[in-house]
């Protein structure tokens, strides 16, 4: 994990949280740039949570949006599943 790219994001309470970038990719028409990230913490069942955000071509650098739509999550789930199978 030492070679992983790290990001720091603020949570809902304004506290900074550190995460690791797992994978980045663009959608098919290259208008959205997605970042999948995690904190690698396991829950009680041993599962790791993954999160995603995206940046539109029209956004300023450093402006990201949380993935909220079913369409975004279907794409992210598909890419993440393929990535984790490798």
UniProtKB/TrEMBL annotation:
Signal peptide: none
Transmembrane segment boundaries: none
Family statement drawn from the similarity comment of this UniProt entry: Belongs to the UPF0473 family.
Protein name listed in UniProt: UPF0473 protein IV49_GL000301
Pfam families on file: DUF1292
